[in-house]
Amino acid sequence: MSDLVAFVDGGSLGNPGPSGIGVIIDGSADGTIRIAKWIGHQDNNVAEYVALLEALQCALRLNADALHVFSDSEVVVRQMKGEYSCRSPRLYSLNWICRKLARSLDFSIAHVRREDNAEANDLATSAARNAEAPAAEAPVNVDSQEHELARMGNLHVRP
């Protein structure tokens, strides 16, 4: 098993607007993993959480022991650390799912400056911009993903 390091970012063109996520995961036996996905019409904070969720799901699929996440979203980092409360029902739901999945790993999350997260930001921006291209894949359905992860959450939790 492995320790993974992830840089995550989510963003929208407008707030809300067409949104994308970017995730870079280092430490995998297969090398660096880069993920860029269009997630439909969302706000910035939802996109940031979906990027974190993607990193957590990837780490669990890879049977990682640890995941160390770096994000330029102070809101997500502080909410995940319990320093900020979640007032938005949607962010609360995403936070709950991410915290539930994070308990399955030796998990840490830290804030980095935007310029230190440039590659993840570029992936997220590219995914949001490419949403309008004719070949864009269907957006991630955040609501159904939240429901499915909540249902499956206990399958991944270590005692």
Low-pLDDT stretches: 134-138, 149-159
Going across the major beta sheet, what is the strand order? Answer: 3-2-1-4-5
Alpha carbon gap, first and last residue: 18 Å
Strand content: 25-35%
- Average predicted confidence as pLDDT: 87
CATH architecture: 2-Layer Sandwich
Structural class: alpha/beta
| SS summary, helix count | 5
Largest sheet, described in full? 5 strands, mixed
* CATH-defined fold name: Nucleotidyltransferase, domain 5
* CATH first level: Alpha Beta
Offer a concise description of the structure.
By secondary structure, this protein is α/β, with parallel strands linked by helices. It has helices at residues 44-61, 74-80, 89-102, 118-129, 142-152; strands spanning 3-12, 17-26, 33-42, 66-71, 106-111.
Task: Give a verbal description of the structure.
This protein is α/β, with parallel strands linked by helices and 159 residues long. The chain has one domain (3-155): Ribonuclease H-like superfamily/Ribonuclease H (Nucleotidyltransferase, domain 5). Helix content is 39%, strand content 26%. It has five helices and five strands, in the order βββαβααβαα. It has helices at residues 44-61, 74-80, 89-102, 118-129, 142-152; strands at 3-12, 17-26, 33-42, 66-71, 106-111. It has a five-stranded mixed sheet with strand order 3-2-1-4-5. Helix 1 (44-61) packs parallel to helix 3 (89-102). The longest helix has 18 residues, at 44-61. Mean pLDDT is 87; it is low at 134-138 and 149-159.
